Amino acid sequence: MTETKAQAGRRAAVFVAGSWGTALASVLAQNGFDVLLWTRNADQAEQINTKHENSKYLPGVKLPQSLRATTEMKEALQNAELALFVAPSAAMREVAKQAAPFMKETTLCIHATKGFETGTLKRMTTVLAEELGRSPDQIAVLSGPSHAEEVIRKQPTTVVVASADLEAAEQAQDAFMNAYFRVYTNPDVAGVEVAGAIKNIIALGAGLSDGLGFGDNAKAALITRGLAEISRLGTAMGANPLTFAGLAGVGDLVVTCTSKHSRNWRAGSMLADGSPLDDVLERMGMVVEGVKTTRAAYELASRYDVEMPITAQLYQVLFAGSSPRTAVENLMGRLKTHEIEQIE
Length: 344
Prior knowledge:
Blueprint: H1 2-7, E1 11-15, H2 19-30, E2 34-38, H3 42-51, E3 67-70, H4 73-77, E4 82-85, H5 92-99, E5 108-111, H6 124-132, E6 139-143, H7 148-151, E7 157-162, H8 166-176, E8 181-186, H9 189-211, H10 216-236, H11 247-258, H12 263-271, H13 277-284, H14 289-303, H15 309-319, H16 324-332
């Protein structure tokens, strides 16, 4: 393909080697980049380099030959034209701090993590900017309806890359776009990041709803009113409301709330049977971003004086001992109100 030839010989670094990081690294490799996937786990690096597999996160899939792994940060970033950060939100600052001494000023920086930093409540572009010594406007974010399990198998996928710098957004678009991975650009970084983070909360709720045996009516209502909460908080944080009607908003929300691949949906479904949160997270064996995001969003709703009833009830289930069924009863028993909010 023309796109693949155009990228030939270029270097890209990807952090870290989870399912989504590996899938996106594979896209870059198939587009002609020489990709180094950074991991702390030496055994995982060896498996990727010798067997071309990442069996823990994406079993049964062969990775491209041009995708290699390393445990050395300096090696990963040597001559890299593109650095993609896909670390969990809780680890993003530490990974960026380790990468900073080896990052060139000209390296295109992108992240694909959906969450807020615990404690500070900062978006990932802000965290990266602080640690890498850049302006947030120089960092792009890739988001949208995209499960790693489908991307790695070249299933048709469409996402969005957002940056205040149109040139950076278009560079990222060119790097990732191919016959099965379509990329749009969007200048609304805040909207794309907020949508990507908060949809994980609603997916937890969708899993709870399904786990309790409620039907499609309940899940449709949850998704729709969840989108209202995303829009409410996002616009309060400076986002463009139109973003929430796009791929990063309703697109990602639908796929995360309805798919068997969704970690957050699976975790919510497990919680519905009364399993303690710690047990659920241990059984999952992977990061469930929606849990930490629920706490962050609960605090952001207070900070921005925004009503987020679904988030509030999930917070009670996750951190205050409320039962899932009580949470649903509380939502259904709220005072009557209008569906469409008045804009003043």
